Amino acid sequence: QGAAPSRMFSYRREGGGAPGRAGTARFLARHNTWGFVATRAARGKIQGMPYGNCLLLSDGPINNSTGIPFFYVTPKDNTVTDLLKNPMASLTLPEADGNFCRKNVIDPEDPRCARLTLMGQMVTVPPEEAEFAKQAMFSRHPVVRKWPRSYEWFFMKMNIEHIWLQSW
């Protein structure tokens, strides 16, 4: 296990997690395995338009959540092409996989199902954090190890600047 990169926090989720808004946000960051990343298109006829895509993510190895989303991406993905030209993005993490909505048979888009939106800059993971990013992604998504190497995969993370939690 690698240590968490600098400027990161770790927390342990036990039972229902920390109460309140911060606990809900940490729960969503920890337990979502994918999220919706929105960018501003940087190509062709849709340049400047909003564009989004679902991406796999991890906020750390299973036993070391950090709250910082890491991604394993390819420049062949239009979302990544956009991010390399303009790193500002938002990441929405729904409670779609959580027990509350499923147990209560509530549609994931129902306002009672929490949603966390993180906004900030998506950056390439620096070399000193690459091993941590690899452990983060591969521990939660083992199948990505088998993705075609010819796609030039690399790691990105979001430097969070703003947080919006919808938890009614």
UniProtKB/TrEMBL annotation:
Which residue spans adopt a coiled-coil conformation according to this UniProt entry? none
Q: Print the keywords alphabetically.
A: Glycoprotein, Secreted, Signal
InterPro entries annotated for this entry?
A: CREG (IPR014631), CREG_beta-barrel (IPR055343), Split_barrel_FMN-bd (IPR012349)
Concerning Gene3D superfamilies, the annotation shows: Electron Transport, Fmn-binding Protein, Chain A
Q: CREG-like beta-barrel domain: from which residue to which, for each copy?
A: 21-168
The compartments listed are: Secreted
Q: Which domain of life is it from?
A: Eukaryota
Q: What is its main location?
A: secreted
A Pfam family of the record is CREG_beta-barrel
GO CC annotation = cytoplasm; endomembrane system; extracellular space
Give positions of region: Disordered. 1-21
> Which family does the similarity line name?
Belongs to the CREG family.
Q: What is this protein called?
A: CREG2 protein
Per the UniProt entry, what species is this protein from, by scientific name?
Gymnorhina tibicen
Q: What is the lineage of its organism?
A: Eukaryota, Metazoa, Chordata, Craniata, Vertebrata
